[in-house]
Every structure is written in C-alpha cells, then in structure tokens.
Amino acid sequence: MMVYVVWLTPDATAWASGGGGPMDNSTSLGTFPPDSLSPSQLPLLVNPWDIVLCSSGTLIACENALVVLVIWQNPALRAPMFLLIGSLALADLLAGLGLVLHFTCAYLVRSDAAQLLTVGLVVASFSASVFSLLAITIDRYLSLYYALTYNSERTAAFTYTMLVLLWGLSLCLGLLPVTGVNCLAEEATCSVVRPLTKNNIAVLSVSFLLLFGLMLQLYVQICKIVMRHAHQIALQHHFLAATPHYVTTRKGVSTLAIILGTFAACWMPFTVYSLIADYTYPPLYTYATLVPATYNSVINPVIYAFRNQEIQKALWLVCCGCVPASVAQRARTPSDV
C-alpha cells in the first residue's frame, strides 16, 4: 500500500504542508498536469519522501532477491519451512520492485493505467508478505505441537495449500484497484492512499489487525510449548535455571517477542492511521507512518532467512564456495525457533 504525494505543484513545499485544498492534502500515486503544458514546460519536483521509498524498494529487492536465489538453487531447501520463507522473500522482492517501478512511472510515464498497475502490484506484494508471515507462524506452531508427525506428506500438502490460498487472496486484493475499485473518478471517496478508496484501505487495515491478533495468539502458544519442553528437559537431567539450555530457551522466547514487536512497530502506525484519517489529512503524516512499514520487508530476510543455519550454509557456498566451521558445526537451539 505504497503511495506518492502530488509531485507536480507550483509550491515546492506542498508535499510537507499539505497545500491549500482537498486534493493537495491527498497522498497520491500520481497527479498529472494539464494537457496544455508540454513536457519541457513541466517543473519536475522530486519529493524527498519518494526518494526514500524508492531507495527502500531497491534495498528490499536486492536483499530478498538473494534469498530467493539461494532457496531456488539449493535442492536441499525444499522443506515446508523453506518454501514459506521463499514465499515471504518473493513477496518482499515484488514489493521492492513495485516501489521502484511506481517511482519510475510516477515521474516518467504519468498515466492512470500505470498508476493503477503499480499500486496493484504493491498492494498484492505487501499483502502476500503479511500472509506469508502468518503462514510461517502457523508452520512454527505446528512443528512444535505436532513434532513427531511434522515432516509427513500431510504437512507438505498443507503448506502448498496455504501458499495457494495466500497468493490467490493477495492477487485478488491487488486486482481491486485495477478492476475499478479506486477513487480516480470520485475524489471524495479517496483514502490517505490514492487511488485506494476509504473502504478498500479499511478492509486491508482491519484484515491486518485480525492477522496480527492471530499471530499474537500463536506466538503465545509457541512460547508456552517451548517453556514446557525446557522444563521437562530440566527435570529429566536435573538442570538448574542457570544452565546453558535454560538460557537459550529464554533467548528463544525473547526472539519471538522481538519478531512480533518488530512486525507491530513497522505496520501498526500506518494501519491505525489509515483507519482514522482520510484524504484531507496532510500527506506528511501518511509518509511518516508508511515508510516504517516498508522497513518490515528490509528486516524480514534478517529475521527469517539469514539467521537460519541451512540458509547461512547455502549463502556461504554461493558467495565463497565454502562453509566456515563455526557455521557448519553450530547446533540448533531453542533460540532458533
């Protein structure tokens, strides 16, 4: 759900102040000048926030392209967990490309069709990213709750079903602006993200809150399972609270809290703001809540891919042709959950 403030305006500070009318206050994915002006007569005012978003998109695309490449080229990374991590990386990769393409189209192509296509791509990609995070959370819960049967064919079938559903739903959400659910014809229905309508973005925001609540519940259950397993092992081996296993278990629970807290910190400000605000609000507020949301796609590879031991090995093989002994011999601990 990425956007761009009106970028052609006589007032170069309008992007920060919100301008003098309703349309000036609307955060837009492209506002086009009168047809009477030739391209050479148009002032090309580049919004600094747009540059930030385009730079974020470039970083997101490069980061996640590396993860997708590693998983695609390594036949050993075909377990359900790696398929879901690959889905997350692919979604974030498309989101990053969408940001870059939208910046390019907004300043060079200047057409409603390009505007709708790029915003559709961004909406679909970020929706797939959030859905993939939920799928990863479900997979982690199932791997602990059904530890003995997790690697069965039924688990693989369930994973493929989740992937089909999440990408199908994301595609439908991305097609809404393209198929006519937009505010280009009626500005009064615009949300803080033009050309998305107020109803459209409300559905996206409420869906996010529901998904976040479900993820929170699942992570609470995961923490309970991890702590229960650690307690059982401690009783069997007469461990004390200060033993390394207990320490790593607490580290695993802290890691889960950091994962969920990071996700909420990135997306919650924009989600809440988009519910309470409308197109008359200054675009500066939209950018201030929107930019952090893109950072979630920058952080995702670090949390879900680069920390994984198997992906670390594959990365070392791709980059250096070898695997350091410290990586090859590191045992999996509860902190890797």
TrEMBL record:
PROSITE patterns tied to this protein: G_PROTEIN_RECEP_F1_1, G_PROTEIN_RECEP_F1_2
Keywords from the UniProt entry: Cell membrane, G-protein coupled receptor, Glycoprotein, Lipoprotein, Membrane, Palmitate, Phosphoprotein, Receptor, Transducer, Transmembrane, Transmembrane helix
Compartment(s) of residence: Cell membrane
Signal peptide: none
Gene3D superfamilies named in the record: Rhodopsin 7-helix transmembrane proteins (1.20.1070.10)
Major place of residence: membrane
Molecular-function GO terms, alphabetical: G protein-coupled receptor activity
Transmembrane stretches, start-end: 49-72, 84-109, 115-136, 157-181, 201-220, 253-272, 284-306
GO cellular component, one term: plasma membrane
Keyword Transmembrane helix: yes
Superkingdom of source: Eukaryota
Domain G-protein coupled receptors family 1 profile: 63-304
InterPro entries: GPCR_Rhodpsn, GPCR_Rhodpsn_7TM, GPR_3/6/12_orphan
Topology in membrane: Multi-pass membrane protein
Family from the record: Belongs to the G-protein coupled receptor 1 family.
Name the UniProt record assigns to this protein: G protein-coupled receptor 12
UniProt source species: Sparus aurata
Gene encoding the protein: GPR12
